[in-house]
Specification:
By secondary structure, the protein is an alpha/beta fold. It is built from nine helices and nine strands. The longest helix is centred in the N-terminal third of the chain and has 18 residues.
């Protein structure tokens, strides 16, 4: 009996640990509509631009289709979609965010509409700050199927390392610090905002349930879901 108690104690600890390690939410619980409605064809609307950068809308639009296609979805070609949306006076996506979307199913054959929202798009210090928000809504039920944000800072700073004759690191000299600042500023000036946006897209859509053309289609419901609001600093 004396040997049995330690074994029971270990078993209880193991069970308790497994419970603590279990994901608090899964993709299936967080995005049930994606698995219930099984959207295949997506229409990406022109981004809603809440910043003062007038170029942000056009630039972001060109970067959205690829990660969605890589996730297993058919995305209506953006050039075609943009031309039609302009002709039909639907270029301002904010007008449709809270309206019935059945017309996009009837016109484009889209199962769901992707609404990109730009909340930050600016060079800041020695980097670029980008905050994006994506909402995917069903064209049949108007239900929100997917909703995530990413606040990303692309750090473009440069830090040179100086070493002694025997290979040990030493404190950088004033000249080295000034040179690093100059290179960091140049990197920031030459790097396009779209680089930060692509990275933000990656972090947002990495949690998107797999589409029909992906081998994980309807098999990733039990995958641990990432936080809805992502904050990242990346190089």
């Amino acid at each position: 009996m004396k040997r049995l108690f330690p074994l029971l104690l270990l078993l209880m600890v193991a069970v308790s640990s497994c419970g603590l390690m279990a994901p608090s939410q899964t993709r299936g619980s967080l995005y049930p509509g994606m698995y219930e409605e099984k959207p295949l064809t997506l229409l990406v609307m022109p981004p809603i631009n809440n910043t003062a950068n007038v170029d942000a809308k056009e630039l972001l639009y060109t970067s959205i289709s690829r990660p969605l296609a890589e996730a297993g979805y058919y995305v209506i070609p953006p050039a075609l979609a943009m031309d039609v949306l302009r002709q039909e006076s639907a270029y301002d996506a904010e007008l449709f965010l809270d309206r019935p979307l059945r017309q996009f199913h009837d016109f484009f054959g889209a199962d769901a509409v992707v609404f990109p929202i730009i909340d930050a798009w600016a060079k800041q210090g020695v980097g670029i700050n980008t905050k994006l928000h994506y909402i995917i809504k069903s064209t049949l039920t108007d239900q929100v199927l997917f909703d995530r944000t990413c606040d990303l800072f692309l750090d473009l700073s440069v830090h040179s390392e100086e070493t002694t004759a025997d290979g040990q690191k030493k404190s950088p000299s004033l000249l080295s610090v000034l040179a690093d600042l100059a290179v960091s500023a140049l990197n920031t000036a030459l790097t396009d905002h779209i680089e930060a946006a692509r990275k933000a897209n990656y972090y947002i859509f990495q949690d998107l349930p797999a589409g029909r053309y992906d081998e994980l289609y309807l098999k990733d419901q039990d995958y641990a879901a990432e936080p809805r609001d992502v904050s990242k600093t990346v190089k």
